[in-house]
Write a sequence for this structure.
């Protein structure tokens, strides 16, 4: 398996702008090759900043937004429209401005949605949506997403998979999370089988508080103890970092990074 690529940018602002440009290129290439494209969004500061940057970038018009499927890697199980939901933040940052086909936008369920306040039922419903979108050539129960974005927590969590939590062992593509180490306590998340079905997985990290987790993820830590270490895209895995997030990398890794 190809080792992850590491790209380091001077600061968080430059990182967000560079990721924006990379997203445009990746989705245009996917649509040119297959007619349609797909992306899995992440929340968090750098994820939202990237979407806001994409909204402001003239190059965004190179993407055919009507031929793009939008999914989420995890979600806070809160009522629809709650400002803490990843969906709400993504819509405000980008999605409401780019003319997406509403049928191709796939938010995870809200706690006041069709499944009610039952996160396990909501997770099963999202898994069913993914299965319905998967094609024979995807070779699995979820689509082979063109691009899947992830943040990384200081503890090494990705999406809503936290160290030592049941989700890191689960083979179902989507699960409910109860007792999350970060509020709110109830969430929905993709798991490793769904995340690693993506053609490309990008882990975005900015800030010195992420440096230790980034180092461990790239140095052979176990995925149960550090979920970020278990991420591998089918074609490529990229760690896109600012200098602060990369500050703890050993020379053996940092020497492969871009300036």
């Amino acid at each position: 398996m190809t080792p992850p690529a590491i790209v380091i940018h001077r600061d968080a602002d430059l990182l967000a702008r560079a990721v924006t440009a990379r997203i445009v290129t990746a989705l245009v290439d996917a649509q040119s090759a297959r007619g349609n494209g797909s992306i899995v969004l992440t929340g968090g500061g750098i994820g939202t900043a990237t979407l806001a940057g994409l909204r402001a970038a003239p190059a965004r018009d190179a993407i055919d937004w009507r031929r793009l499927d939008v999914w989420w890697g995890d979600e806070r199980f809160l009522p629809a429209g709650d400002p803490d939901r990843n969906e709400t933040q993504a819509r405000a940052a980008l999605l409401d401005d780019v003319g997406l086909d509403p049928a191709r936008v796939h938010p995870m369920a809200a706690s006041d949605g069709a499944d009610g306040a039952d996160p396990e039922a909501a997770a099963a419903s999202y898994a069913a949506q993914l299965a319905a979108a998967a094609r024979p050539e995807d070779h699995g129960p979820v689509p082979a997403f063109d691009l899947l974005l992830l943040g990384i927590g200081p503890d090494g969590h990705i999406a809503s998979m936290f160290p030592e939590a049941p989700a890191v062992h689960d083979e179902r593509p989507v699960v409910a999370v109860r007792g999350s180490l970060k509020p709110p306590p109830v969430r929905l998340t993709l798991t490793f089988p769904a995340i690693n079905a993506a053609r490309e997985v990008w882990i975005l990290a900015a800030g010195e508080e992420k440096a230790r987790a980034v180092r461990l993820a790239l140095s052979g830590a176990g995925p149960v103890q550090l979920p970020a270490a278990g991420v591998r895209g089918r074609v490529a895995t990229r760690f896109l970092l600012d200098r602060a997030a990369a500050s703890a990398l050993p020379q053996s890794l940092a020497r492969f990074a871009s300036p």
